[in-house]
# Entry
Amino acid sequence: MKKGVLFSAIICCLSIYSCKKDDGISCTSCSSSETADFQVCKERNGNASVNGQDTGTEYSTYISGLEQAGASCGAK
# Structure
């Protein structure tokens, strides 16, 4: 009985921790000749954020604007 309870507790803890990183936020690095490298993140609401501040602009629109202005975003 004790082994069953211990096993169940371990499974429960593992399932909680495995979901912890799935928070819906993803980030990409951007660089420009005019600025230091920085990260743009896609928030859960779909907006882009820089330095933790929501820009109020949809992520794909924000990245497109950066790239049109000469920045390079994505994997290097």
Q: What stands out?
A: The two ends are 53 Å apart (CA to CA). The mean pLDDT is 79. The helical segments are 2-20, 59-68. Residues 14 and 65 are 41 Å apart (CA to CA).
